[in-house]
């Protein structure tokens, strides 16, 4: 409106006078325009390739749908979030966290998710546990990746039992280097425990199973290193993040295949830090990201799948094979209710195992 | 005069030179004012956060944090492993660094410059890059194993990373300059007239080295060892990448603080590590003049 008037004024007068008229008028007209607010939201997540996908798939479309709202990106760090809330100086409005955050123990740090705005019931509450302070946004996970040139006459591991069977599949195996990569779950599934009976984790049994591999067990130097060891054939198979395995398979052209059976789903969750100054807009952003229309939007840019049950079918057809969310019927899910009470013990046991204690 | 007497005399002369140097031209109070900005930075960014950490370790939830450290076998054990591996790294640095510094001391100025460049080069690239570079050399299919298998020394690759070996190799590489620099500084202080005098008195080169040169370079050796040890105890990235199945103390702190959000227990672990380092520095300072740590030549 303002623009139009100024244009007309300029056309008519073609002089500096127009500026004198337009500038004072501008605030009058813009206040009557549709956009009422100027909001800047901060979205904190894990960065890297994920950042590009989140920006292109979610944040840009959100800004287009809400002119006047700007979303900026930051790197997530649980300790930083805790320090922010404690210092009452919260600069993040929405954060992406892994399954190891956002349960009862972390509730004092978080705003309750407003399920009147967010489609909570479409977000597979039976698979992705929440106490109401987080909602799942995205799914990835880990699975067995194997080097096809190292498999004995065309055989392929069918699950974790095969992973631990060195007589049927000779050679080294790699697992990742932290307790948050579910190494104990892999061992217990390998010992024949059914996915539904995994929890409570029998940590002693898991350590024993891991130790049974002896020198055939390699600890990955990094998440990427996990997939690369398989790609180069230094190990015959490994339990690595599927995004990294897809990377060496599709982008690197390595002879690597994935066994999606008994893949362990590691969802990402959205949380809103307690004390954010833009709580209402934060909930709107959470609702936008988890909506049927937009949840699968970022899968175009990265091999992570949606969490909204209605969005599962909305990923691009050629991407479908690559996403953990396409194999939910044969996947293993984590029990975060159990983890919430036992996470310290699991980490301690993992450290003990790394330190060579039995 | 005996050789021993000469050594003592030379040391005393150096001390005299130093003390006459340290009283500068500036008037006392003006010199003291200049300390304030630096002191403020240290107070605000180092001492105050440290105070918060101590407070937190005692109150979040209680001083029980320290009992918990002692109660769980794994924490003291990881601390001991860390100290043991740190000692090995220090020893490695010394065994590599001393001959290197000696070589630097003996060659001509141009070569000296080149050797200094070589030892300082790693400082100019990121720690992360250097550590990943080691994985290219050390992995099972890496350069070292490929060559050894190629020339028939071994049949199967030997594990060079993913264990203590990897950590020690990587850390030795990163910390070597901190050993070489104080040693070369202390060798520079050596008065070559002493060797001449000793050989004039009939000492053979071996004896001159072991009985005169080496004892006089010991302050640099001690300073280098202390520096390397103290820096190594707190290492995180290198053991995390090259260590595989080894637990380094710093990793425990990271897990507590950023995974489990146990700020209190994490702080307690940090304070314990700091206390260990302070004890080492206190013991070391009996053997080391702090001047030697910064390579101050006294001339």
Q: Summed up, what is this model?
A:
Chain A has eleven helices and nine strands.
Give a verbal description of the structure.
The complex is a heterodimer of chains A (358) and B (299). Chain A has two domains: 39-139 and 267-328, D-Maltodextrin-Binding Protein, domain 2; 140-266 and 334-354, D-Maltodextrin-Binding Protein, domain 2, CATH 3.40.190.10. Chain A is built from eleven helices and nine strands. Chain A has helices spanning 2-13, 16-30, 48-65, 78-86, 160-163, 183-190, 203-212, 223-231, 242-251, 279-290, 336-354; strands at 39-45, 69-75, 94-97, 135-147, 173-175, 217-219, 237-241, 256-271, 305-306. In chain A, strands 1, 2, 3, 4, 5, 6, 7, 8 and 9 form a nine-stranded mixed β-sheet that branches. In chain A, helix 8 (223-231) crosses helix 9. The model of chain A is unreliable at 1-34 (pLDDT under 50). With 299 residues, chain B is mainly α. Chain B has a single domain (73-293), classed as MetI-like (MetI-like fold). Chain B is built from 15 helices and no strands. Chain B starts with a helix and ends in a 6-residue tail after the last helix. The chains are: A alpha/beta (358), B mainly alpha (299). At the A-B interface, helix 4 and helix 11 of A face helix 5, helix 12 and helix 13 of B.
Strand content of chain A: 15-25%
Helicity range of the residues of chain A? Answer: 25-40%
Instruction: Count every helix of chain B, treating DSSP H or I runs of 4 or more residues as helices.
Output: 15
| CATH structural class of the largest domain in chain A | Alpha Beta
Radius of gyration of chain B: 23 Å
The CATH homologous superfamily of the largest domain in chain A is called Periplasmic binding protein-like II
Query: Order of SSEs of chain A, N→C?
Result: HHEHEHEEHEHHEHEHEHEH
Shape label of chain B? globular
């Amino acid at each position: 409106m303002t623009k139009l008037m100024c244009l007309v004024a300029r056309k008519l007068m073609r002089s500096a006078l127009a500026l004198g008229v337009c500038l004072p008028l501008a605030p009058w007209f813009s206040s009557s325009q549709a956009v009422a607010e100027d909001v800047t939201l901060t979205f904190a997540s894990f960065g890297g390739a994920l950042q590009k996908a989140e920006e292109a798939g979610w944040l840009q479309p959100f800004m287009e749908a809400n002119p006047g709202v700007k979303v900026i990106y930051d790197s997530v760090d649980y300790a930083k979030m805790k320090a922010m809330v404690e210092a009452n100086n919260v600069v993040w409005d929405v954060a992406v966290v892994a399954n190891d955050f956002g349960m009862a123990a972390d509730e004092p740090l978080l705003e309750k998710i407003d399920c009147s705005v967010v489609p909570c019931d479409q977000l597979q509450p039976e698979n992705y546990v929440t106490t109401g302070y987080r909602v799942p946004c995205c799914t990835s996970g880990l699975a067995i990746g194997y080097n096809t040139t190292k498999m004995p006459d065309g055989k392929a591991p069918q699950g974790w039992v095969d992973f631990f069977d060195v007589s049927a599949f000779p050679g080294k195996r790699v697992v990742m280097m932290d307790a948050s990569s579910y190494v104990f779950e892999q061992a217990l599934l390998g010992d024949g425990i059914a996915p539904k009976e995994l929890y409570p984790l029998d940590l002693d049994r898991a350590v024993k199973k891991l130790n049974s591999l002896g020198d055939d067990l390699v600890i990955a130097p990094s998440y990427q290193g996990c997939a690369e060891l398989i790609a180069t054939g230094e190990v015959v198979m490994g339990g690595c993040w599927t995004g990294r395995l897809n990377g060496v398979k599709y982008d690197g052209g390595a002879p690597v295949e994935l066994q999606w059976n008994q893949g362990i789903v590691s969802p990402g969750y959205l949380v809103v830090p307690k004390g954010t100054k833009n709580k209402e807009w934060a909930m709107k952003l959470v609702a936008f990201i988890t909506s049927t229309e937009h949840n699968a939007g970022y899968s175009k840019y990265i091999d992570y799948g949606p969490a909204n049950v209605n969005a599962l079918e909305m990923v691009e057809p050629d991407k479908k094979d690559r996403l953990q969310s396409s194999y939910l019927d044969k996947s293993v899910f984590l029990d975060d209710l159990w983890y919430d009470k036992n996470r310290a013990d699991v980490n301690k046991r993992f450290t003990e195992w790394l330190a060579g204690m039995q | 005069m005996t050789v021993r007497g000469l050594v003592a005399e030379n040391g005393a002369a150096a001390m005299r030179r130093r003390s006459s140097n340290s009283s500068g031209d500036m008037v006392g109070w003006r010199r003291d004012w200049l300390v304030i900005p630096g002191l403020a930075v240290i107070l605000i960014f180092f001492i105050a956060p440290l105070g918060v950490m101590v407070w937190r370790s005692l109150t979040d939830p209680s001083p029980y944090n320290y009992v918990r450290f002692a109660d769980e076998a794994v924490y003291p054990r990881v601390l001991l492993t860390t100290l043991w591996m740190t000692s090995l790294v220090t020893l490695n640095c010394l065994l590599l660094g001393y001959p290197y510094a000696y070589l630097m001391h003996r060659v001509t100025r141009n070569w000296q410059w080149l050797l200094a460049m070589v030892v300082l080069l790693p400082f100019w690239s990121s720690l992360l890059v250097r550590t990943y570079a080691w994985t290219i050399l050390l992995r099972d299919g890496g350069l070292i194993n490929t060559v050894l298998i190629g020339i028939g020394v071994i049949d199967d690759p030997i594990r060079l990373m993913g264990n203590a070996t990897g950590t020690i190799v990587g850390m030795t590489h990163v910390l070597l300059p901190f050993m070489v620099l104080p040693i070369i500084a202390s060798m520079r202080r050596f008065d070559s007239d002493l060797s001449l005098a000793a050989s004039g008195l009939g000492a053979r080169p071996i004896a001159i080295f072991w009985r005169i040169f080496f004892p006089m370079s010991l302050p640099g050796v001690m300073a280098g060892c202390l520096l390397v040890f103290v820096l190594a105890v707190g290492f995180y990235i290198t053991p995390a990448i090259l260590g595989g199945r080894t637990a380094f103390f710093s990793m425990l702190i990271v897990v507590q603080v950023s995974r489990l959000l146990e700020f209190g227990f994490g702080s307690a672990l940090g304070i314990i590590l700091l206390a260990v380092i302070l004890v080492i520095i206190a013991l070391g300072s009996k053997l080391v003049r702090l001047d030697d740590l910064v390579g101050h030549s006294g001339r």
